[in-house]
Specification:
The chain has helices spanning 20-38, 117-133; strands spanning 48-54, 57-64, 67-75, 78-79, 82-89, 94-99, 113-115. By secondary structure, the protein is an alpha+beta fold. The mean pLDDT is 84.
Length: 136
């Protein structure tokens, strides 16, 4: 009898070397890096942006005519007015952020919201744009 290779399912588990602290640090860095890349484009519509970094913290400030019109502090433990928890999504096979408090994204009420770092950045950016558009 010939043994043919079988395609059997494997257990979906969190990798042994997964670190929620290192992943949160990566998310903070990712958000900061992407704000630094995107903020210069805001000058085209009359806003000036600043990104400051400290260990495990990114501070974003958007100004118009010298007045701060948007601010966000992203820290390893908190993001502005939101709290998030890093975890490994075994089904998706990648790290994700579970948003616990949704005010940062303009949402209210309880929900189960999980995002990748890219999805989180895009949601924060979209919310920021909505807030900037609401200025008079």
């Amino acid at each position: 009898m010939v043994n043919e290779a079988m395609n059997l399912p494997q257990p979906r588990v969190t990798p042994a070397d997964f670190s929620k602290y290192q992943e949160l640090r990566k998310v903070v860095k990712f958000v900061g890096d992407n704000f630094e890349r995107q903020i210069p484009e805001l000058r085209n519509v009359g806003f000036v942006g600043t990104v400051d970094r400290l260990p495990d913290t990114v501070s974003i400030r958007i100004e118009r005519s010298g007045e701060t019109v948007y601010s966000l502090d992203v820290r390893k433990a908190r993001m502005g007015d939101a709290t998030a928890r890093q975890y490994f999504d075994r089904e998706a096979g990648c790290p994700k952020v579970k948003i616990i408090d949704f005010s940062l994204l303009g949402l209210t009420g309880p929900a189960d919201l999980t995002m990748t770092a890219t999805e989180l950045f895009e949601a924060i950016w979209t919310r920021m744009v909505q807030q900037l558009e609401s200025l008079r």
